[in-house]
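Lecture notes, unit on protein representations.

Consider one protein chain, 271 amino acids long.
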Amino acid sequence: MRSISSKATEPATKASLVININLIRSMSIVVGLLMSTVAHAGFVDFIIRGTPTISYPAVGQTDFLITVAGQKAALGSNDINGQTLGSLQSVAITRLDDVTRFTAGSGPQVAPYLNFWITDGAGNFAVVANEPSDVNFQPLYSNGYDLSFADLSDKVAKIFEVTDKSWLPNAGVGLTFADLASFVIQAPTPAQLTAGWAGLGTGAPDELVTNKAYGVNWVFGDTLSNYVSGTPGYLVSNASVSAVSGVPEPATLALLGLGLAGFAVSRRRKI
């Protein structure tokens, strides 16, 4: 039987310790990167109500012509559905048309407005928004918007498209976006929207006819005439949104665990 002296095993033990420490450090960096994974979203245009005109004057540009009250259209994205509202990193859009034709501080001058579908995961949905005509929101406008959750957190959060607000903090009254940080961004399915619920109206951000909805929406037009663009319409580009995923997916963590276990077995066999 082969014997191994403690002196002979000492270098191997030290080497193993260094490797294991380096492995732990590397895995910590990987987990950190996974926890800051950013989901970038693309937007699609859709008509919500009435007959607004949507056109594409140039590559990457979308024009929304809202000529009368009641017309409503949007750019929507579902790519960060499943993330919490508080994980929002950035939501942005650029205005290209001449806003000086509108009264300062009016809806058209600081359009579009932003809204989100949120859910508690128990079948309840609502739309949360803050119209840019709110004087506390207007300073955020600069040839469009580039907003983080920090920008939104202390702003009034208005709740729409639901009558029963008992599932929301303070029954949906007197809220800021910070109060809703833990709620999940998630659009209802077409089937859920078709079935409907108390408080759901024709102005809800879902596509006319198909009822397809998007979790994040830049909206043009409204029930009243406060967001009528006239001619020319709202010309926009560079709509984007990103959210930071705070917790690695379970499957990813499982793979990391298997990798660590496999490395440990491999080291034992070599030693």
